[in-house]
Design goal:
Elements lengths: L7 H6 L13 E7 L1 H4 L12 E7 L2 H10 L1 H8 L3 E2 L19 E7 L5 E8 H4 L5 E6 L5 E7 L2 E6 L1 E4 L5 E6 L1 E3 L3 E2 L5 E2 L2 E3 L1 H8 L1 E4 L1 H20 L16 H15 L22 E3 L22 H8 L4 E4 L10 E7 L7 E7 L3 H14 L7 E2 L5 E4 L4 E2 H10 L5 H29 L11 H10 L3 H7 L3 E3 L2 E3 L1 H6 L2 E3 L2 E3 L2 H11 L5 H5 L2 E4 L8 E7 L5 E5 L6 E4 H13 L1 H4 L9 E6 L4 E6 L4 H24 L6 H9 L5 H19 L9 E2 L15 E2 L2 E2 L4 H11 L20 E3 L5 E6 L2 E6 L2 E11 L5 E8 L4
Parallel strand pairs: 2-5, 4-6, 8-16, 25-32
Antiparallel strand pairs: 1-2, 1-15, 3-4, 4-5, 6-10, 7-8, 9-10, 11-14, 12-13, 17-18, 18-19, 19-21, 20-21, 22-28, 23-24, 25-26, 27-30, 28-29, 31-32, 33-40, 34-35, 36-37, 37-38, 38-39, 39-40
């Protein structure tokens, strides 16, 4: 026997006081969703239930008015007695942050401690073209699991940006979709899921304004879903469909049938029954967003130190200490815990470290605290040890190791790993943008022996690090291999030939020289230098806003240095984690090797699990891609290393991730040896050089605005290493009318048509079309595409 059908309106009265709606005429529609509705258990007596809903007002300005000026009436409507964040305030329309959000989330508790949470959106948003949905929120939630959608469990990864106020912009989507992947027979498949807010609206009931607005809003979202998937939504399309009661399924099925009739499919997607159909994506990502109008922040006031009164007790010897267990992730220092007698209240626990680089650690941490949150600055004791506030947590690397040994199935650990990676990407990008924004138009030089550059040079000079570990040579397949021979042999990995380690070390030493072309031209920013998972600690408990406290460790190599060097260890250690620690992990990778007189031969298939794939995607989507675009906005001349790095880590599929894990480092080594002039694809910025006058790129029907073609021509010349336009021949006219320039090598570059550049010289003719390029920010940047030129 099924449970009796319940009245949605009666359930809704437990969520919202509909009698108060007329006093708030800006409200056009109210939706109710969530587990109480899905399970058919919602009733006014269920006082301890949590309720989730959506309120739709007419315009975005009405959001500001409702939340800031009619706050008391809104809270009364929802029955909220205690707000989650009473100081929550919507930025004014004149604020630089006004354009960075579309909606907001507000929440609180009733007198019976039942939680109420609503997102406030505007009708004008739904009538616009956007598919992204940026929500101003106090709650920090970035990974949302879903029930099995079709044949796989899919989770939505929601990017977030922390604002100076402490609030976040949650970058939601109407629909999340993976890039299509094909099986060996050419059958393509992609996974899709409603966004968090869209799922709640479409699967929920409209308590108020259904006929006038509710059905239209649902139809708009369902159209976005069918356009992305070429399928109509079904019960199985929703994140929590396995929790739906029978009565709710009956109601929602009829609701979807009625709404889908309003949106007939023109090209229904055929079903595929191929037995080797490609694996569905485990994680779906939305369009990458970068909140541009962030205020430059100085985080030094947030940095934590050991209180002086406690430090003086340690200096007097009034403490107990014990050694911390050795970690497989640390080989350069030893650590111990310190317990200081009570000063006021309980005893104080501290963290201490013995290091050969105390002064570099203190200096690096002090400067890092300016650009990065989550920094502990040490105090130096008279015995030469470094003393820090104690942090009760686990490193990201330890958490990942535990996750793997536990069978890779513990969801809370997986969610925490991805949350940590997203915070790292956000913090790093913010620091880079702060530094690079202040460097615009200035000549950059890398200080000698600075930070990670000094560290890496010391490792490869005279084969120092390699000799430290392997001075006695190798014993492989019953043969003794002297270290000198091992260093001199070339490598063959999966059939591709690479130079010997000694050659690579020598080339690395040349690149790392302070006066090398690479170091002199690569953009500089302050970076932590060593922010891989073993140097990031995570608190085991969450804060009231659902965030986790995270701190960065080991700042001895932090400093101002080339960004590509700063990225090296975090990218390598975190993405190649299972290769790096293969000796202490379960057998996960297929590897075979042999050494003959001519080469070291390796056959290698790396393990790319869901965590590796997700970390790969997060680093590329939320750090590398927006960084490359920001560097191009600032018009740094040597962008080739960044474009190559972005291409090498293009996030598309598990196969691309595997290929990158197996070969990206040697391939990047090869590419960085090539001069920038050999690059035949150059991405151009549509902004202006002066930051006060910079026009942000925009798009309209496939055309790009705010981009003077003659300016694009100049930037093309510069990016290709051609002559300064101001020294061009034939007394070129002012930049706004300049159409022809000549390079040092005698090439002539001419803007022959509105969208075409013609390059002639050395018996070669190339035509380049300037075409719009859809980047990951939903803005249009022109791309220079070569026709007839070698690739």
């Amino acid at each position: 026997m099924t449970s009796p059908r319940f009245d949605f309106l009666q359930v809704g009265r437990a969520f919202v006081d509909l009698n108060r709606v007329p006093a708030l005429p800006a409200i056009l529609a109210i939706f109710l969703g969530g587990s109480n509705l899905y399970s058919a258990k919602g009733n006014p007596e269920n006082h301890h239930a949590d309720w989730d809903g959506v309120i739709v007002v007419r315009t975005k300005l009405d959001i500001f008015t409702l939340v800031n000026q009619r706050r008391r009436d809104l809270l009364a409507l929802l029955g909220i007695a205690t707000e989650e964040m009473p100081e929550f305030s919507v930025p004014e329309p004149s604020s630089p942050l006004w354009d960075e959000f579309d909606a907001l989330r507000i929440a609180g508790f009733t007198e019976t401690h039942s939680k109420r949470s609503v997102k406030v959106l505007s009708l004008e948003y739904f009538w616009g073209p956007k598919s992204t949905l940026n929500i101003l929120s106090y709650k920090d939630k970035r990974v949302y699991p879903a029930d099995d959608l079709g044949t796989a469990k899919i989770s939505r990864v929601q990017q977030a940006t922390r604002l100076p106020s402490g609030l976040l912009v949650l970058h939601d989507q109407l629909v999340y979709q993976s890039p299509p992947t094909a099986c060996v027979h050419g059958h393509k498949s992609s996974s899709a899921s409603f966004g968090v807010t869209a799922d709640l609206i479409v699967s929920g009931t409209c308590l108020f304004g259904n006929l006038s607005y509710g059905r239209q809003i649902k139809s708009r979202i369902l159209s976005s879903y069918s356009a992305a998937t070429q399928r109509h939504a079904t019960i199985q399309s929703f994140a929590r469909h396995t929790r739906f009661s029978t009565d709710f399924i009956d109601w929602l099925s009829k609701e979807l049938s009625d709404l889908n009739r309003l949106d007939p499919l023109t090209l229904p997607r055929p079903s595929c029954v191929c037995p080797c159909f490609p694996k569905n994506a485990s994680f779906l990502y939305g369009t990458t967003n970068t909140t541009h109008e962030l205020v430059v922040q100085d985080f030094s006031e947030r940095a934590k130190r050991v209180p002086l009164v406690v430090f003086h007790l340690v200096q007097q010897g009034l403490f107990q200490s014990h050694q911390r267990p050795h970690s497989v992730f640390s080989s350069n220092s030893s650590t111990y815990e310190v317990l200081v007698p009570a000063v006021e209240g309980d005893e104080t626990k501290l963290f201490a470290k013995q290091s050969r680089h105390q002064l570099q650690e203190i200096s690096g941490a002090t400067t890092a605290a300016i650009y990065y949150p989550r920094i502990h600055i040490p105090r130096l004791t008279s015995s030469g040890n470094l003393l820090y506030p104690f942090f009760d947590g686990i490193t990201e690397a330890e958490l990942r190791m535990s996750f793997i040994h536990g069978g890779r199935s513990h969801w809370p650990s997986l969610e925490l790993l991805l949350y940590t990676e997203m915070v790292k990407a956000e913090d790093t990008l913010r620091a880079y943008r702060t530094c690079l924004g202040g460097m615009e138009g200035k000549k950059q030089t890398v200080p000698p022996n600075e930070g990670i550059q000094r560290f890496l040079r010391s490792r490869v000079a005279d084969d120092a690090r390699f000799t430290e570990f392997y001075r006695d040579g190798f014993y492989i397949s019953g043969k003794s291999i002297p270290m000198e021979k091992f260093l001199a042999l070339p490598w063959k990995v999966n059939g591709a030939v690479y130079p010997s380690l000694r050659t690579l070390f020598r080339n690395a030493l040349e690149v790392l020289h302070p006066q090398s072309t690479q170091m002199q031209t690569c953009p500089i920013a302050f970076g932590l230098g060593d922010a891989h998972g073993a140097n990031v600690m995570i608190s085991p408990s969450s804060s009231p806003d659902n965030s986790r406290e995270i701190i960065y460790l080991d700042h001895e190599v932090a400093g101002f240095h080339a960004i590509l060097l700063d990225l090296a260890k975090p990218f390598y250690n975190d993405i190649f984690f299972e290769t790096l620690y293969a000796d202490i992990l379960p057998a996960t990778e297929d590897i075979a090797y042999e050494i003959d007189e001519k080469s070291i031969n390796v056959r290698f298939t790396p393990r790319v699990d869901d965590v590796t794939q997700a970390i790969f995607e997060i680093k590329t989507r939320y750090l590398l891609q927006p960084l490359c675009e920001f560097v191009l906005e600032l018009e740094f001349l040597d962008v080739a290393p960044f474009s190559r790095l972005e291409q090498a880590f293009e996030p598309e599929s598990e196969e691309s991730c595997q290929a990158s894990v197996a070969s990206v480092i040697p391939n990047l080594w090869r590419q960085w040896q090539r001069p920038a002039e050999q690059t035949h694809s150059v991405r151009l910025n549509a902004g202006l050089a002066n930051p006060a006058r910079r026009v942000r790129p925009s798009h309209d029907n496939g055309r790009f605005k705010n981009c003077d073609k003659s300016m694009a021509l100049e930037r093309t010349m510069l990016a290709m290493g051609l002559e300064n336009p101001d020294a061009g021949v034939d007394k070129a006219p002012p930049p706004a009318r300049r159409r022809c320039l000549r390079s040092r090598e005698g090439h002539t570059v001419q803007l022959v048509e509105a969208d075409t550049l013609k390059i002639t010289g050395d018996h070669k003719n190339f035509n380049f079309g300037i075409q719009p390029w859809q980047n990951s920010h939903n803005s249009m940047t022109p791309r220079l595409l070569g026709y007839g030129c070698p690739r």
